[in-house]
Amino acid sequence: MTISSSLKRPAGSTWEESKADNPQFSRSPGLMLFPRDGDCVLYDPKEDNFKRNVGDDFSGCRFLANSGNWLLVLDSRSDLYIEDVFSGKKMPLPSLESVKSADCIVKRVGDREFIRDESGAIYEDLIADVVRGLLWVSESGKEYVVVWLFDLPGHSYMSFCKNGDTHYTDIPLFFDDRAFHKFDGLSDMVLRGHRLYVSTSRRFVRIFDLSGPQGFFKDITGHQTPFPMLSRHDFAYDSSIAVTTSGEVLLVESDQRYSTWFRLYKRDPDVEDPNNACHTVTEVDSLGGEALLLDLGFTVPANKALGIESDSIYFTRHFRPCQCSSRQLDICVYNLATKSLHRYHNLLDTMDLVDARWFLPRN
């Protein structure tokens, strides 16, 4: 195998071909690297080894999300599929226009253009470049959930499907009832198993259970008091949400200008009236023996043997925002305890990357 000129191996590292029967990749946090030439390269920081993916050429593709070894891909024809980056196994998904809804029709008008008709209201300029997605795949690889939307201001729905589904089901993002307007819109979302966590435009957190039969979902936010995640610096910095292993929702703030720090917040239990409070969260300086994979939006238990450092934030962009252009690629690990940042200059300086994502390899 030849190495293309756009993909340079950092000094001191080794190349190996990824094989389904012997991936030879540790279970420590790894990186999926996407060079501009359409390749996919797997990097194991613990072993300092690189492996090429055995799957397809990804030229013209967009990488929307990842879960374990699996990657959610939107190809050059605007078709969605998921692929195991070690084995190359691919599972096709329903087409983007396969949305079953009582008041909506999605039509394809080209390889990368779509029109959405919502009860006579026509939304045009829906192109593949604004599709955003989430992915969860079970340890066995037999179950999955895919969530996607056209990520434009005022978008009214997001859609999801699970293994076995023949179409997508819409989840509304806006309400006709004024009493529920605080739940309108979308600022961020995290998928963990069959639970979808959504931060609304006003930073209220909604939780959906997607585990039901095809065409059904359940908003399970109602069993608790609706709560916005508002810091004293809200809207001054990049902010997103993350979910801990216990299901607690955290607010994550980062510095969009200098890219040198993060702040974490949890719900402030002393706030009695969150609907009228200016700030509703309290800052925390520890993840309680866990590490945050910001690309995925959730925490995992720290494990020294696997190189998962406690109170660390693994990220490739400080923020993967809605409704605006992506932040600059910046492959790092940030330590909350020491306020220090380890940046992977060897990858950023020597590889012509268009994207990268942290992942946790599975057997």
From TrEMBL:
Region called Disordered, residue ranges: 1-30
Transmembrane segments: none
Ranges for domain KIB1-4 beta-propeller: 51-335
PANTHER family in the record: DUF295 DOMAIN-CONTAINING PROTEIN, OS07G0183000 PROTEIN-RELATED
Protein name, entry field: F-box protein At5g25290
Lineage per the UniProt record: Eukaryota, Viridiplantae, Streptophyta, Embryophyta, Tracheophyta
Gene that this sequence comes from: LOC108832563
